[in-house]
Amino acid sequence: MKKSDALFLALSISVGALLSSCGGAGEKSENVQSEEAEAMEMQEEERASPLKTAEGEIGGKTITVQYGAPSVKGRVIWGDLEAYGEVWRTGANEATYLNFSDDVTVEGESLPAGKYSLFTIPNKEGDWTVIFNSEWNLEHGHYQYKEENDVLRVEVTPEWLDSNQEQLLITVEEPGIIVRWEKLKLPISIN
Q1: What's the mean pLDDT in 160-166?
Q2: How far apart are CA 172 and CA 169, in angstroms?
Q3: What span, in angstroms and rounded, lies between the C-alpha atoms of 6 and 154?
Q4: How many domains are there within the chain?
Q5: Whether the predicted pLDDT of 10 surpasses 50
Q6: Same domain, yes or no, for 105 and 152?
C-alpha cells in the first residue's frame, strides 16, 4: 500500500470513528469533507515532485495522464540524472500512467483503449523509445518495470529547445502527448 493511501485510510477511519461516536455515522459534514481535502492538499505540497494530472481530447478521444512532476533544480538531467539507454519512468515517484477512452494509434501503431504506464528510453543521439506497459499502477515506477508487460514500443524524435522547462510538464495537445522537461520537447503522435 502506498504511504499516501495508508495516510488517507487512517484519516478516513479516524473521521468515521469520530462521526460514529457523535451519532452522525454515514453522514459527512461539509466541515469534515473540507478537512479531508485540506489534508490531501498538504500531503501533495510535501512531495518534492507533486502529482499532476492532464486531460484532453485528440480526435474525439479522451486522454488522461497522471505523473509526478520533478524539477530540474540546477541538475544535469539527460545523460546524468536520467541515463541514456536506460528505462526512465517519464516522471517521478510512482509510474506515470495514461488512460485512453478509445482505441488509438500511437506513432502509427495500434493501442487498445485502457490504462498504461508510460516509460521512455532516452538516447544521446537519434530517436527515443516510448513504451506503453500494461502494469499501470506501479508504486515505485521503473524499479517494478518489467519489459514482458510492454504492450507497445514506438520510436519518437526528440526536439531540443533553447528555453528551459523547470518542472516536468506532460500535456495532451496536438499531435497527442507532449513531454517537456529541461530543454526537451518529446511530441508523441496519437490519433
Answers
A1: 96
A2: 10
A3: 36
A4: 2
A5: no
A6: yes
Mean pLDDT over 27-31 rounds to 47
φ, ψ of residue 38 in degrees (nearest 5): -65, -40
Assigned C-alpha cell, 123: 538516447
Same domain? For 185 and 98 the reply is yes
**E strand or H helix that includes residue 14:** helix 3-21
Do 29 and 67 reside in the same domain of the chain?
Answer: no
Residues 149 and 120 grouped into a single domain: yes
Question: Mean of the pLDDT values across residues 108-128?
Answer: 97
Give the residue from 94, 89, 92 showing the smallest Cα distance to 1: 94
- Distance CA(78)–CA(75), nearest Å, equals 9
Question: Domain containing 33: what range?
Answer: 3-46
d(C-alpha 69, C-alpha 72), whole Å: 10
Per-residue pLDDT at 34 exceeds 70: no
**Helix (H) or strand (E) run with residue 188 in it:** strand 176-189
Q: What is the mean pLDDT of the chain?
A: 83
